[in-house]
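User: quick one - fold this with zinc ion bound?
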Amino acid sequence: MAGPVRTCVGCRSRACKSDLLRVVADRGAAVAGRPVPLRLDDAVGLPGRGAHLHPRSECLELALRRKAFARALKLSAAVDASVLIARLGSGSSPSMSADVRVELRQTVPSARPARAADNKEAGRVDS
Ligand SMILES: [Zn+2]
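Assistant: Sure. Structure tokens for the protein plus zinc ion:
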């Protein structure tokens, strides 16, 4: 199936547009002096400049490390990629800043089920 081809801002390889996530800057939610939140365009066609990314945590990390989103989206400020991190299930990478991880924990409190703790609690034997 041929379609428009875009370049992933992470690994810089070209891929069919339908295989890539489209990311836009949520300028409306931006606060001066704070990173500009990124937003996923889930096929709704958000207006404005978009950056394209494989739906993989590796590509997200590469893009963050290179500050590729800011470049692709023509932003002078830093970006807040917590939405993308939540979607792509990363957060274990040492390249991810602690700030972003804190942000992720705050915005997605249910990302990590508390089942492990429950099991530990249930398996504890009080003697
Ligand atoms: Zn990629």
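One thing worth noting: The helical segments are 57-65, 68-72, 82-88, 98-107, 115-123.
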